[in-house]
């Protein structure tokens, strides 16, 4: 036995006074009392620290037996609270006493605030008065009044089993945090997809980033302004200088058959006076004004007009409009870097960001076709025949389905020669939508003075090239504000060739967004603001973050207030899907959902090329893989690669066979005969995807120094690779090297 003696140490709260031997018993009582006080303080301090520790964990126990009764009650209360808003959950325990769990954190038993939590778990039976969500399919009409469905084979709903399964899934989910203890961040983190989150402001990015400023193309005052009459939806031209002489040239679509989408015509200049009302048949014009005694034109400008459809009638109430605003070649990473004001605006409003949105194809065409038709590139080419006159006209674009529902439709895109549906393909024989801006774009690019930035039209006359598209979007939505519409407005000219140039449009894009909101457009419009892919070539693509930069375009969606209130599960799904893997096919499925908001999700049409994809208004599986999202391995941003030595014999063999595959691909293409045969120059990097047979290889070829990136499957037995040549990426600009071929698929491999 220890001989250590314990001596009492006096403290301020418990001083031990000197007592005589006759008061020894009184001294013992005081000692015990002080000891109990100290013990109580220590116990509560330990318990509080334990509670704080437990409150920081994201995990739930896998079974209820692992926790005390009090912890079980707390977990169930908090967990159920995530499913319901400001409502109570009522259970019944074994002694038939009703126990009410109030989601604000109170637990009541009758009128008594105390509850006997010592009852055995096995003795708790749950009442049938439980939320509908646990007993039936959600009501997609937004009604909460339906009676809960009770399985006839089950005396009472097995909510405990339901919760136990979900708790197990949440426990697994929480073991894959979006930020680890070592500060590794993810957009998506699941067993099937680890999508890292690069730092937009990393040193290597900031070293090459040169912020741009907004360009005012013409500082002179407007000689003509346009006013809109809300009452009769008419436009008037107003002359702002007395004595000025002005006229307008109507812009018309003029191409036929193979050239239907390639040409425009200008009518002779017609003089007009102040307050001239624009005729309904005039949709676009170029104006010219001369001051007195000026022989030359003093000011040239261009305008577009959106007139109400003659056959347009108001569709059934409470059907939302849809507006797509797109910027080419901007990743989520680069949006945060180059457009911080816009990014902050989106975060402060009712916008939902899909951080795990992953492109499914190389360039704009396949990614937008997936959004607008649900087709992958090969199926889009075979079904829509873009190389044939009239092929795209017969293609089942989603805007046709909206038009069948009474929607007014619009499509506008800048950069005429390189636009999505006209670059090296035939375009549309007839205008695809009610409002079609291509004749305007072709005319302003040809007729007005132009300045260029990074090889793209920048200023066209008195405005930026992109502003003709966004101004038209504002006008289209304002004119059709009291009708339903589907409009897509896409720009390339301030983003495609220079990753830093979007910074010049940062504040301007916020202004456009605020204008739409101020005009009341947001009140009844589902707005999708997105890109097709990130930078595919150039200095940003060559960085360590370049792999994800290319594959992760930004994607935001905004719901009007009445949609959020009527369909609260849409909001919940969008919040959940923020950090889950999504693809362009899901956006197409979402359009299908918008067309039939009250239809059961399982009965909605699915994308042709991704039957497992579905609306983002429904929760996406947490453990979803790229294959399940319709994304090929090469474009999959779920990065789990391990480096392989460039001198490895397998790596060199893979690269050599990739070059051979490219040469074989070019040899089979008619119109690519002038392209030189490529040779492997050297291998830049080789990475292996996890422990699979898939390799990501970057390599240079000669002549021309082309820089490629490919995903290849290696057969260790046969020593052969399999690769989809069209999916191979070229990581530097190649327009100047491939002018000897007009074959679209061959251009990125062709060295003339």
What would a concise description of this structure say?
The chain has 752 residues and is an alpha+beta fold. Helices cover 27% and strands 19% of the residues.
Which key features would you list for this structure?
752 residues; alpha+beta; 5 domains; seven-stranded mixed sheet; six-stranded antiparallel sheet; 29 strands; disordered N terminus
Q: How much helix is in the residues?
A: 25-40%
Share of residues in strands = 15-25%
The number of strands is 29
The CATH architecture category of the largest domain equals 3-Layer(aba) Sandwich
Strand order of the largest sheet: 15-23-22-14-21-16-17
- Uncertain runs are 1-22, 48-163
Q: Round the mean pLDDT to the nearest integer and report it.
A: 83
User: Structural class of the helix and strand makeup?
Assistant: alpha+beta
Name of the CATH class of the largest domain: Alpha Beta
Explain the overall architecture.
- By secondary structure, this protein is α+β, with helices and mostly antiparallel strands.
- It has 5 domains: 21-51; 64-149 and 158-174, no CATH class; 224-304; 321-635, 3-Layer(aba) Sandwich (Alkaline Phosphatase, subunit A), CATH 3.40.720.10; 641-749, Nuclear Transport Factor 2, Chain: A.
- The protein is 27% helix and 19% strand.
- The strands form 7 sheets. It has a 7-stranded mixed β-sheet with strand order 15-23-22-14-21-16-17, with helices on both faces. Strands 24, 25, 26, 27, 28 and 29 form a 6-stranded antiparallel β-sheet that branches. Strands 8, 9, 10, 12 and 13 form a 5-stranded antiparallel β-sheet that branches.
- Helix 6 (340-348) packs parallel to helix 12 (506-518) and helix 7 (364-373) runs parallel beside helix 16.
- The radius of gyration is 33 Å and the shape is globular.
- 38% of the residues are buried.
- The model is unreliable at 1-22 and 48-163 (pLDDT under 50).
């Amino acid at each position: 036995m220890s001989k250590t003696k314990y001596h009492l140490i006096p403290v301020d709260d418990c001083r031990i006074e000197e007592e005589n031997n006759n008061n020894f018993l009184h001294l013992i009582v005081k000692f015990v009392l002080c000891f109990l006080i100290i013990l109580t303080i220590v116990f509560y301090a330990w318990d509080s620290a334990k509670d704080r520790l437990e409150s920081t964990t994201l995990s739930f126990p896998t079974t209820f037996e692992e926790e005390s009764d009090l912890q079980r009650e707390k977990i169930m209360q908090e967990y159920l609270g995530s499913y319901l808003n400001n409502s109570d959950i009522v259970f019944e325990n074994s002694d038939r006493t009703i126990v009410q769990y109030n989601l604000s954190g109170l637990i009541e038993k009758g009128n008594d605030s105390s509850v006997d939590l010592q009852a055995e778990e096995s003795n708790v039976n749950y009442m049938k008065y439980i939320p509908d969500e646990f007993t039936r399919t959600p009501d997609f009409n937004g009604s909460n009044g339906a009676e809960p469905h009770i399985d006839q084979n089950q005396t009472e709903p097995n909510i405990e089993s339901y919760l136990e399964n979900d708790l197990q899934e949440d426990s697994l989910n929480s073991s894959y945090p979006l930020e680890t203890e070592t500060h590794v961040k993810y957009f998506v983190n699941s067993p099937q997809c680890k999508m890292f989150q690069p730092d937009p402001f990393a040193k290597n990015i900031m070293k090459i980033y040169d912020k741009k400023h907004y360009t005012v193309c013409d500082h002179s005052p407007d000689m003509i302004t346009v006013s809109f009459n809300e009452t009769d939806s008419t436009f008037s031209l107003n002359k702002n200088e007395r004595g000025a002489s002005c006229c307008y040239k109507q812009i018309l679509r003029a191409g036929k058959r193979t050239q239907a989408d390639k040409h425009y015509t200008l009518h002779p200049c017609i003089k007009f006076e102040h307050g001239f009302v624009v005729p309904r048949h005039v949709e676009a014009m170029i104006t010219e004004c001369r001051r007195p005694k000026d022989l030359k034109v003093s000011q040239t400008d261009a305008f577009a007009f959106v007139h109400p459809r003659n056959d347009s009638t108001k569709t059934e109430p409470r059907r939302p409009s849809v507006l797509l605003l797109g910027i080419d070649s901007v990743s989520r990473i680069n949006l945060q870097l180059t457009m911080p004001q816009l990014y902050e605006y989106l975060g402060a409003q009712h916008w939902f960001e899909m951080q795990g949105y992953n492109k499914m194809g190389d360039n704009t065409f396949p990614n937008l076709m997936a959004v607008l038709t649900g087709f992958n590139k090969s199926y889009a080419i075979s079904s829509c025949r873009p190389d044939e006159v009239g092929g795209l006209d017969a293609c089942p674009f989603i805007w046709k389905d909206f038009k069948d529902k009474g929607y007014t439709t619009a499509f506008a895109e800048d950069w005429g020669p390189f636009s999505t549906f006209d670059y090296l393909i035939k375009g549309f024989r007839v205008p695809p939508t009610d409002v079609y801006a291509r004749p305007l774009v072709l005319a302003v690019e040809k007729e007005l003075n132009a300045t260029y930035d990074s090889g793209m039209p920048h200023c066209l006359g008195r405005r930026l090239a992109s502003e003709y598209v966004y101004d038209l979007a504002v006008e289209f939505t304002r004119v059709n504000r009291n009708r339903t519409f589907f409009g897509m407005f896409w720009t390339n000219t301030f983003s495609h060739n220079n990753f830093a140039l979007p910074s010049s449009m940062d504040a301007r894009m916020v202004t456009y967004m605020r204008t739409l909101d101020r005009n009341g457009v947001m009140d009844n419009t589902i707005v999708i603001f997105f890109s097709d892919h990130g930078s595919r070539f150039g200095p940003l693509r060559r960085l360590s973050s370049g792999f994800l930069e290319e594959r992760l375009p930004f994607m935001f969606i905004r719901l009007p207030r009445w949609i959020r209130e009527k369909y609260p599960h849409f909001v919940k799904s969008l919040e959940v899907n923020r950090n889950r893997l999504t693809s362009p096919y899901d956006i197409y499925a979402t359009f299908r959902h918008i067309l039939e908001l009250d239809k059961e999700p399982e009965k909605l049409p699915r994308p042709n090329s991704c039957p497992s994809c579905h609306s983002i208004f429904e929760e996406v599986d947490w453990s979803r893989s790229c294959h399940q999202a319709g994304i090929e391995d090469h474009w999959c941003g779920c990065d789990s690669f391990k480096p392989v030595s460039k001198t490895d014999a397998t790596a060199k063999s893979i690269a050599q066979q990739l070059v051979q595959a490219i040469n074989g691909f070019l040899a089979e293409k008619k119109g690519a005969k002038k392209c030189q045969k490529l040779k492997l120059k050297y291998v830049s990097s080789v990475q292996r995807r996890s422990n699979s047979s898939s390799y990501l290889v970057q390599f240079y070829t000669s002549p021309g120094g082309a820089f490629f990136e490919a995903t290849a499957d290696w057969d260790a037995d046969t020593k052969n690779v399999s690769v989809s040549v069209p999916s191979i990426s070229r990581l530097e600009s190649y327009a100047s090297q491939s002018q000897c071929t007009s074959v679209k698929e061959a251009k990125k491999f062709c060295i003339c």
